[in-house]
Amino acid sequence: MNDAAVLKPPARRLLQISLGDAARSGRAESGLAAAMRARGGEIEMRLVGQGRKLSIIRDVLTQAPRFDDYDAILTTEYTLAYAAGLRSWLSRSRTPVIVIGLNLSRSAIATGLPPVDRMIDAPFRRLALTVMHSRHEMALFRDKHALDPARMAFALWGFDLPRIKSRRFEGAPPYVCLIGRNNRDFRTFCRAVEKAGVHGVIIAPSYAAFDFEIPESVTVYRDLPMSDCLDCIRNALASIILVEDALRGAGHITAVAAMLLGVPQIYSDVPTLHDYFVNGATGWAVALRDADAAAAAINSIRTDRDEARRRAAVAKAYAERWLSHEAVSARQAELVTGVVEGRPFEPVDPEWRAAHEALARQTPAGLTSAE
């Protein structure tokens, strides 16, 4: 038999279940799909309609293809992760179920009654691997749903900036901005802006409620498209991420966008952001609900432009190395391939850990949250 007659091994088949228009199901074309294709894997996308938890779970149980026809099942959302684990458990499938980017954007699936919650947690314990976008979230989900630490891993969230067509904020008077859909502390932002004597811009969803009087120095926009949001960030004195608590999503999309745009950032000093920022090196950390500290950071950026540019440049270099579409897709594909092939995987990328720790060592000694 000559070399030309030797057949290549068949590609591994992976099924990704995501939320969206079911009519658009088909061959996946994501960064992860491309990275897996380079490793001999092909991802088929199956979309289920967005809705309430019970309808999502029902659709996964009744409409998703047979799990054992695939080498791995991938999901990307909390309720989908539960539904896929439940389906795997009920069907006794041997195919590993992997969750990429598990976070708690919705309310938890729990009752508060320990005996009942132990039963509810069974589908989560069925997962072969859960990948979180911060090390702190690994601990949160381990404790919330009794997940096995040996089946958990950390992978940064990232993306490549799209072309920004918007010019909505070009030429606007100096301002700082806060952008986000969930877990944003609009009240502290408004108080900080007033104390700093600067104009503020908020971009929020239509459902965001403001139970306080918005000062005249703050302009609120609702449901602006992505291009407008990016234009707002790139023209701002600073992008600010203030969150209400450390238990939910913490603005990773906004953080990465501002890094790549080279814009200084002020952020809540919460563990979910510690893998993305280093206080004093790539941004300004402030305590939760501390308007005085946020105002002081704003004024620091306004008065010391050289330092603001320095930190923004360090953050941009960090993002270009670790938070690009290519970098995060490669890390995800490495973890998925390890599970499919039954190989051990590194829960935290040792190369990234060494680089992050080196960055932290460059931070001036004795730096406080409010600086």
Please characterize this protein's 3D structure.
The chain has two domains: 3-154, Rossmann fold, CATH 3.40.50; 175-321, 3-Layer(aba) Sandwich (Rossmann fold). Mean pLDDT is 92; it is low at 365-371. Helix 1 crosses helix 12, helix 2 crosses helix 3 and helix 7 packs across helix 10 (291-303). The protein is globular. The chain has helices at 31-38, 53-63, 78-91, 114-120, 122-125, 135-145, 186-196, 226-234, 252-261, 291-303, 305-322, 325-340, 350-361; strands spanning 12-19, 26-27, 41-48, 72-75, 97-100, 129-132, 152-154, 175-179, 199-204, 218-222, 238-241, 265-268, 284-286. By secondary structure, the chain is of the alpha/beta class.
Topology:
Blueprint: E1 12-19, E2 26-27, H1 31-38, E3 41-48, H2 53-63, E4 72-75, H3 78-91, E5 97-100, H4 114-120, H5 122-125, E6 129-132, H6 135-145, E7 152-154, E8 175-179, H7 186-196, E9 199-204, E10 218-222, H8 226-234, E11 238-241, H9 252-261, E12 265-268, E13 284-286, H10 291-303, H11 305-322, H12 325-340, H13 350-361
Parallel strand pairs: 1-3, 1-4, 4-5, 5-6, 6-7, 8-9, 8-11, 9-10, 11-12, 12-13
Antiparallel strand pairs: 2-3
Order of helices and strands: EEHEHEHEHHEHEEHEEHEHEEHHHH
- Assembly type of the chains comes to single chain
Task: Write down the overall geometry.
Answer: globular
What is the overall number of helices? 13
User: What is the CATH C level class of the largest domain, in words?
Assistant: Alpha Beta
